[in-house]
Design brief:
There is one protein chain. The protein is an alpha/beta fold and 403 residues long. 25% of the residues lie in helices and 29% in strands. It has a five-stranded parallel beta sheet with strand order 3-2-1-7-19. A five-stranded parallel beta sheet has the order 9-16-10-11-12, covered by helices on one side. Helix 1 runs parallel beside helix 9 and helix 2 runs parallel beside helix 6. The N and C termini lie far apart (53 Å).
Length: 403
Amino acid sequence: MSHIVVVGAGQAGSALVARLRSQGFSGQVTLIGEEPVPPYQRPPLSKAYLLGDMEEERLYLRPAAFYEDNSIDLHLSETTVAIDRADKMVIAGGKAIAYDQLALTTGSVPRRLPGAIGGELGGVHVVRTLSDVDAMAPACVKGAKVLIVGGGYIGLEAAAVCAKLGMQVTLVEMAPRILQRVAAPETSAYFRDLHRSHGVDLREGVGLDRLLGEGDVSGAVLTDGTELDLDMVIVGVGISPATELAETVGLFLDNGIAVDAQGHTSDPAIWAAGDCASFPYKGARIRLESVQNAIDQAELVADNMLGANKDYAPFPWFWSDQYDVKLQIAGLNTGYDKVVIRHGDKDGSLSHWYYAGDQLLAVDAMNDPRAYMIGKRLLEAGKSPAPDLIADPATDLKGLLRA
């Protein structure tokens, strides 16, 4: 009987094993995870869960009983330390597990501050796992002083939650503007104003020089010489693909575990999907850090493990919740040279449309789900309305789908 082993019990791993069963695979399925709890959603961790609006069990992607009911051998609290490619074995939890096909859905790991500048002091946190958030929660109290390092989506979402909890929030971003790597200046300006309106001391073009404290963090010195008194620090300076296991066994890496269009790694018996995997896309190689990609790519790999021979053709979309604003993003804005601003039908709703020449690349929609959905459908259909039509408030967006 064929045995499929999946290493990494996150969003991608859970989606992959569920897909195998839904597609009728009757062989043995094993899912191995390092954490002590079943696969769970990560986005609510730093929002609803930290705010106390969501209990742990509601984070679970599927009830714990799902895995037993579907004959999925779920190994928790087990680290996979080695792969024997020649004999097709993984070593996890002190035992060898044979596989016929292996999938790596190891996800990503948060970048941390160097120990030399105080990154190992107590009270310095990252936001990635349930245990990360459980560790910081007791310090997230009204009036506490928190420094957030990094003005990407992770840092901004953390700032929003801390501000809602009544904390004194300072956010520093080394780049000239927040969201510089992922969004247009117009979107950066929108969120800069949003955070400052909620009392966040947001400083751009300013980095962290070092943290202060004996044992626990008590302050920070910024690159402009400012010194802050602090109770805690949240680090949101990005994530890196979790490739250590793949690297030790000689799989080819290129901004993650390199896979082909179907999800194969450089070993024909090993596949990869999710945050850890880079794949070919429009003549380049990219890696997408999103829930949508983790699910879609993992399900494609499951299908291909069963012989579907399908290529991955993603239509990227993302979201971020900050205060009462839902940002929804469709497409990838890489290579844009123009941003068209469109005001929505409701107060405060707004969308930014990215173009390269006359080609629509992506849409950022702030509290404007209609613009997001239409933009997403236009992108999926390969349609690019003229920029002046998008800018014109009289244009019926839905009508552009029929053009």
